[in-house]
Amino acid sequence: KVPASAVFGVWDWSMPGKENSGAAAVGESLLADIASADFIVAADPVVDRASQEAFLVATKALLGLSGGPPLARNLKEFVVAHKHQQSYCISGYAAPTTGARPTITQADECQRCLFRRVLEDEGIKVTPWHRTPSEFQHPFVECWSLSPGERR
C-alpha cells in the first residue's frame, strides 16, 4: 500500500553505527533507512562464533541495548530467520542417507540453540514469529522476533 516502501542493503554487522557500502543507492544513507525502518529482517545471519559476535553487536545497537539510543528508532518488528546447524549452534544431528526418508531425531535440540541462548543472555527477548505454514515448515529453521528484554 502507498506510501509503503522497502529498502534492501548489505550491512556490516560488526560496525553498526558507521555508514558503509550497504546503502541501497549511491548517495542514500543506509543508517537513515535503518533509523526510520518499521520492519527489519535478517536472513540466517549466524554461521559461526565470529558472525554471531558481529550480529550481537548490531542487534544490541538496533535495539538500544549497547548504551546509546536505538539505531532503529521506529522499529516495530525485528525478524531473524535462523537455520540451526549441527556444526555450530546444536549438535547430534546426522544427515540421512541418500534416498532415505529424513529421520530427524534431534529436532528438540533446537530449544538448546547456542545462538538463541547468547541473545537471551545479552538481554534480547527471543520469541517465535508467527506460525509457519505447514508446507514451509522445517524442523531446523525458525523465525524469531527479537526485542529488548532482560539481561540474564
What does this protein look like?
Helices cover 20% and strands 16% of the residues. The chain is an alpha+beta fold and 152 residues long. It has a four-stranded mixed beta sheet. The protein is globular and about 45 Å long. α2 (49-63) links the parallel β1 (39-43) and β2 (77-83). It starts with 29 loop residues before the first helix and ends with a strand. The chain is built from three helices and four strands.
Q: Please work out how many helical segments DSSP would assign.
A: 3
| Helix fraction by DSSP (H/I, runs of at least 4) | 10-25%
What is the ordering of alpha helices and beta strands?
A: HEHEHEE
- The largest sheet has its strands arranged as 1-2-4-3
Please give the largest β-sheet: 4 strands, mixed
Computed structural class: alpha+beta
Write the layout of secondary structure elements.
Blueprint lengths: L29 H7 L2 E5 L5 H15 L13 E7 L30 H8 L2 E5 L12 E8 L4
Parallel strand pairs: 1-2
Antiparallel strand pairs: 2-4, 3-4
